[in-house]
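Lab meeting, item 3. Inverse folding demo.
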């Protein structure tokens, strides 16, 4: 019997503080920061379906950085140092999910985002892992399985296009890069027999008005580097074609009906207090982050493809725009509390044309543990 245990590692920053006394003798040297404690257990979901009865959240004793460790690369982009990534465990989990879906005749696509940087840009040892790093060992392991992989970098290189779309001040991709990913995903699913209607409209760059805004990601606000970083430009892509959707978020009792802007974008593009503030986090203004489960119904595409998407914030806009080319999307973020229970229900009770994982490699799979019995 196969047991899949999913671990969510929780980063806790704990630092020891010390101050100099007002008089002699000099203040003693502060004690080094204490190691963060292991996070508490998260209870497994109640009454999970029998086929997935051992899919559960557990705790981990993995030790994280006491603070975010940021490094400026040769191009002036800020990169975040992270602890190691286990390619074998990550690929093994993917293979197990693929086996489950194969038994249900459901296509499974893993979207491998473009890397955030090239290793040659880094001013330090290549033995250190960074957010958005392309782990060739993970790619090689995926190739040994029957998983359909959408390697965004390879697709862009084959098309003669730039393969990097990162912000300088944030870990996410620019909107153009996420939209391009949505286009590639439509092609990939189409090659697997999943019908994507209105592809020439929803996935046509000319079908959108692009509004640029000054954008300062969260990296500069965490960095101790005194050198200034120029603001990025965050582009909001607004459909010029008719849209009519329903977004439902049961955990927060939210139901939104209306246009793409009113539902998926939550109407925030009309708020001048946000559009005029470069510190606005537009990445998470889309959809319902950090909710573990919500759905989008596209009423302009009745009878269109139904997808289950496992998602974190890394490709959130890609999936947001993809919702305009299909009939229904169920979105699950297993990192959030309750997400695994929704994943259990969705995989075994949902009627889907395909399952897609669209997430940064590390964000989803670094802390997953896999056991076989």
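The presenter then showed the designed sequence:
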């Amino acid at each position: 019997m196969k047991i899949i245990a999913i671990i969510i590692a929780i980063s806790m920053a704990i630092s020891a503080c010390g101050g100099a006394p007002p008089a002699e003798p000099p203040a003693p040297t502060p004690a080094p920061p204490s190691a963060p404690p292991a996070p508490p257990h998260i209870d497994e979901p109640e009454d999970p379906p029998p086929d997935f009865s051992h899919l559960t959240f557990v705790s981990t004793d993995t030790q994280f950085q006491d603070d975010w460790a940021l490094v400026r690369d040769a191009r002036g982009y800020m990169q975040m140092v992270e602890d190691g990534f286990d390619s074998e465990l990550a690929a093994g989990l993917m293979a197990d999910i693929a086996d489950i879906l194969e038994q249900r005749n459901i296509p499974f696509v893993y979207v491998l985002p473009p890397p955030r940087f090239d290793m040659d840009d880094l001013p330090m040892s290549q033995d250190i892992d960074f957010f958005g790093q392309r782990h060739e060992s993970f790619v090689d392991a995926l190739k040994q399985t029957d998983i359909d992989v959408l390697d965004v970098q390879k697709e862009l290189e084959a098309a003669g296009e730039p393969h990097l779309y990162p912000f300088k001040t944030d870990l996410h991709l620019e909107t153009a890069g996420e939209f391009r990913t949505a286009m590639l995903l439509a092609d990939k699913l189409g090659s697997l027999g999943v019908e994507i209607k209105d592809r020439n409209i929803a996935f046509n760059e000319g079908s959108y008005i692009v509004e640029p805004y000054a954008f300062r990601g969260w990296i500069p606000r965490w960095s101790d580097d005194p050198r200034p970083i120029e603001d990025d430009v965050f582009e909001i892509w607004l459909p010029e074609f008719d849209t009519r959707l329903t977004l439902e978020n049961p955990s927060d009792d939210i139901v939104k009906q209306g246009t793409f802007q009113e539902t998926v974008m939550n109407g925030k593009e009309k708020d001048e207090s946000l559009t005029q503030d470069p510190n606005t986090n537009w990445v998470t203004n889309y959809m319902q982050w950090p909710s573990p489960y919500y759905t989008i119904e596209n009423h302009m595409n009745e009878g269109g493809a139904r997808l289950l998407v496992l998602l974190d914030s890394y490709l959130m806009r890609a999936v947001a725009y993809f919702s305009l080319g299909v009939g229904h999307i169920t979105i699950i973020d297993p990192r959030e509390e309750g997400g695994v229970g929704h994943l259990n229900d969705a995989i075994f009770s949902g009627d889907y044309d395909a399952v897609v994982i669209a997430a940064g490699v590390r964000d989803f799979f670094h802390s997953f543990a896999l056991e076989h019995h």
